[in-house]
């Protein structure tokens, strides 16, 4: 059966969730250990329940690297599946159940714009003065650029370690594409505000001045995650007013002023562990994607867990039981993720550095 775009064939549209679940379990049983199903924490609960492994971007990157399975079905967004394809062997295949599941933040750092910025920085600061540190929420072409230029990929779990690694090389760091994760991480490292600048790709020289760039240690690309920039100071204040004993934990992709008012901030995995380790009776508001918040509330009925404000990632939500079933029953070219062979070596270098930096911190 030939696929056209992301539309489901008629035979799948009318299926009940119960019937879809039965067919998914049957198909997975047929594949046995040949197939592994990975699910990001932000996936729907019914997808997570069917997965072999759940995790954040870093955790799932490691899982993809460690897997011996011939077939990897990645329930996340496109950049995650691309990273898995880079990290796995040539004889392994990575599938994404809905190719429209992309990341808007990843598309905020266009390769051509980054190359223009890189040329400008070299002209002002000199060759070798800046090292790129690339958030994993980025296209594979940028990962290859990062590897070629001596930089490293990072996730929200190890952004601090990656930026510190860059500074240890005696370099300034260009952090992209998420301005807020970069700013919050730099603040935790004690980098003064006047040593941090934002590069706006829509402005000449990024909207900066040569003197600013020469003073800067951390140069932040102007990009953001709409899921996390949704949260505001007003949300924090309203929750504290309603629940005086509440603890608030947020993702570091949130705006600086929200992170400053929260009780804790950390990666998706950090948030999961924060809830797990909190004592019974705790009241906790979470500033991250609502599917994860809802699942944590269900998994910890002895605690009151709720969203700081409701924020859904529509791209993660594009993956559902029906297109997962369709993928498992066809495993055809339309959901096969293939990174261009010429990009893989440099992208792999940048991703390998990320894994090594994290392991060295343990």
Share of helical residues: 40-55%
Q: Terminal Cα separation, in Å?
A: 48 Å
Total strands: the figure is 14
Largest sheet: 5 strands, mixed
Radius of gyration, taken over Cα atoms and rounded to an integer in Å: 21 Å
pLDDT averaged over residues: 93
Structural class: alpha/beta
Compute the number of helices. Answer: 17
Number of domains: 3
Q: What general outline do the C-alpha atoms trace?
A: globular
As residue ranges, the low-confidence spans are 1-5
Strand order of the largest sheet: 2-1-3-4-14
The percent range for strand residues is 15-25%
Write the layout of secondary structure elements.
Elements: H1 10-13, H2 17-31, E1 35-40, H3 45-50, E2 53-55, H4 57-66, E3 71-75, H5 78-87, E4 93-95, H6 111-125, E5 130-135, H7 140-148, E6 152-154, H8 159-168, E7 172-176, H9 179-188, E8 196-199, H10 210-215, E9 218-221, H11 226-229, H12 233-242, E10 247-250, H13 256-261, E11 264-265, H14 268-277, E12 283-287, H15 290-299, E13 304-307, H16 321-330, E14 336-337, H17 344-360
Parallel strand pairs: 1-2, 1-3, 3-4, 5-6, 5-7, 7-9, 8-9, 10-11, 10-12, 12-13
Antiparallel strand pairs: 4-14
Helix pairs in contact: 2-16, 4-5, 7-17
Q: How would you characterize the overall build of this protein?
A:
This protein is an alpha/beta fold and 362 residues long. The protein has three domains: 10-102 and 316-331, NadA-like (Rossmann fold); 106-223 and 346-360; 231-307, 3-Layer(aba) Sandwich (Rossmann fold), CATH 3.40.50. It is built from 17 helices and 14 strands. It has helices spanning 10-13, 17-31, 45-50, 57-66, 78-87, 111-125, 140-148, 159-168, 179-188, 210-215, 226-229, 233-242, 256-261, 268-277, 290-299, 321-330, 344-360, and strands spanning 35-40, 53-55, 71-75, 93-95, 130-135, 152-154, 172-176, 196-199, 218-221, 247-250, 264-265, 283-287, 304-307, 336-337. The chain has a five-stranded mixed β-sheet, sandwiched between helices. A five-stranded parallel β-sheet has the order 6-5-7-9-8, sandwiched between helices. Strands 11-10-12-13 form a four-stranded parallel β-sheet, with helices on both faces. Helix 15 links the parallel strand 12 and strand 13 (304-307). Helix 2 (17-31) packs parallel to helix 16 (321-330), helix 4 runs parallel beside helix 5 (78-87) and helix 7 (140-148) crosses helix 17 (344-360). The longest helix has 17 residues, at 344-360. Residues 1-5 have low confidence and may be disordered.
